[in-house]
């Protein structure tokens, strides 16, 4: 019999059928008891896959024991032997194949029709009944598969969210003289969605516990349609700068997706996999930045700079597809009342230090991703006098930074997040010094190489810093348990604090992107180049490296 394990086994009584179990729940050669219409029925699956349903009550002894009988065959007939007085019955007809009872009546078991029906597709709009990722048996049996499915769908939605969030870093390349916007105004257009996205990360983190990870992924995915439609409507010569600013601000909803996605996926995985998995989740989302920049390059190269509305229009079907897939296949986890509360972490020194470290890593990545094209166009205008020339190179940095983030998380899993983060900041300081020197010499190859290195190192630092968040909270939990605290209560508090800190660090980190755009804007206004901004970045990276070594150098985080 070629039947899938998920197929439903049903027993007929009268004109109706009662589902009793799934086909895969039945062990070949053994029986189970089921209650159908008030009667006990013994259900068997033989070693060939055939199913039989008979009365569970032994007609000789009167005991309901047939489901515990021994199955086999007699002269080709499938049979079951009662465990009481050893009478053998034909599984197909219920007829007793041994002697009759003393009163001369024929011993027989009543039979019921049984069928297998293909299972309906599982309904995904539901909360999983339990979730125990730290239980190895549970993880191997069902946990890993379920977590992977939710991870990849979360990555897809977050990826598109990043594309919508960073779309203005590409659209400003389309805004030629006919729009009447100077370079400072363009830096502001990219800073506005960054700022709103940073602020939205706090409520988005709480939304996972409030609505469920799957439900909020669907809601936040559908919200991406709003800024995308607005961009497709208003982008045309003659539009006011105020309208563009308001439209750009709405794109900030794409930045919130990161926080809710990370908070959700963090709960799906066991501790020893969090660094790699959070790196994959964040890196896959970060890839939305170079993806939209490549899409912008394609529009520029084919339709020209006069058609910016084509870019957001391309994303409308992708948003609809990602939202539909999340609704169909993602799961909600049991929240157990563990909604994140910022007040649990805002009073801790580790909270603000980790936020500073993430501001230095992710803030650098997202800030440079938004500003890199404009910086190239202003700093080396002789080389990048057309939007196409800028777009041909500006996507490389965000691409390499996104790909490096999972590597940073995996490296942190092996050697510790603090060690990787400290090394990343030291190397970022060196790369910034290289950029500063190249900018003074106006040496484009060295400048571009330094920026690519900075993107890669910020990606590595992103992964390792985020790995430090659950590691710091886990160390606190273990210390409390050793001191006599209740493990269940302490672990619940750990999950709340971790998700709260993920949201807060994500918000502060995104604000770093705003600061970088504002630093570039002010530096170019004051001196005509980015020297002042690079000097500030260099100082920040050195401070972060020293603080990481000083505070976490001897801690296993």
UniProtKB/TrEMBL annotation:
Residues 18-117 form the Rieske domain. The keyword Cytoplasm does not apply. Keywords: 2Fe-2S, Iron, Iron-sulfur, Membrane, Metal-binding, Nitrate assimilation, Oxidoreductase, Transmembrane, Transmembrane helix. The chain crosses the membrane at residues 151-175, 187-204, 216-235, 241-265, 277-304, 310-330, 351-376, 388-408, 420-440, 446-466, 501-520, 532-553. It is found in: Membrane. NCBIfam families: nirD_assim_sml. This is Nitrite reductase small subunit NirD. It comes from Streptomyces orinoci. The lineage of its organism: Bacteria, Bacillati, Actinomycetota, Actinomycetes, Kitasatosporales. The gene is nirD.
